[in-house]
Amino acid sequence: VDIDRTSSQSTPCRSVYCAFGNPQESASLDTSTSIFVLIWWVTLGSIGLAGMARWAYVARELTRRQSLLDPSTLVARRWQLRLSGVYAFGCAFRAVFPRADVQRICLYDSWISSVMLGRSIATIAELCFVIQWAMMMREASEGRGSKLASMTARVVVPVIVVAEICSWYAVITTNYLGNTIEQSLWTLCVALLTVSLLILTPKFPLPVRGMLRMWTGVGAVFVLFVSTVDVPMYATRWLADEQANKAYFSLREGLHDVATRWVVTYAFQDWKEEMAWMTMYFSVAVWLSISLVRVPDLRKLSRLHRTDG
To answer: H or E stretch including 117?
Structure first.
């Protein structure tokens, strides 16, 4: 079943409704329901809720071991806990109520699936996530003599702010150029973090190097996936729209559209390109975010390593 919640000013698609009203008109489009999509939705929601459960466990763990941490480390880890909590909640929300923003498609027929609400939650969550990594990179690079790591700690947050602006541009106007730039900026930031971690890893004791290598490996996989799958996907969509002379929304039209229209579809064709990145993003990225709460004091470890050396 495909349902489009929209205003009368929006382009008709499937069955057309006012956001809180009755049917106005209908269009004949694909109404197929994919069992695979429903299974994926249940799996995705379970992953999101499992992430929140994991965060709650780590929060209790931090409370139990707070007496073992020095005051500065405890303050830093409490900030990591708060930021990861926002990120885990944002990802859980998006996993339970999946959407593809530019297409305005979703799986749950309610205002809670509106793009305006979902994109706002995603923006806050993603900014919290990148702040986590900036804090951790600053801690890891302090006194290590790595100019790249220090520079990365300073630039990743402002670069991702620009990426979020590009994402909103794409969502409001339905122009995939914004998504192409957004994902390119994320790739740049993760590449900087990955190379910085690669440089810093030998400067830490052996027990910590395994964790740093794990982060480095995940970062390398992210860069490879986004640069070969996500960025080309969005660029291809943008070029196709340009070739078709697509008329994009103005700022005013787009803001109205993101607040009032959502298209409910369970067709595999509509979701197939979103499944891989959503599944990895709402699982692996959340686990990485939560893992930052449990990291030992990297400043102290580095000092001990230099002393032992």
So the answer is: helix 115-141
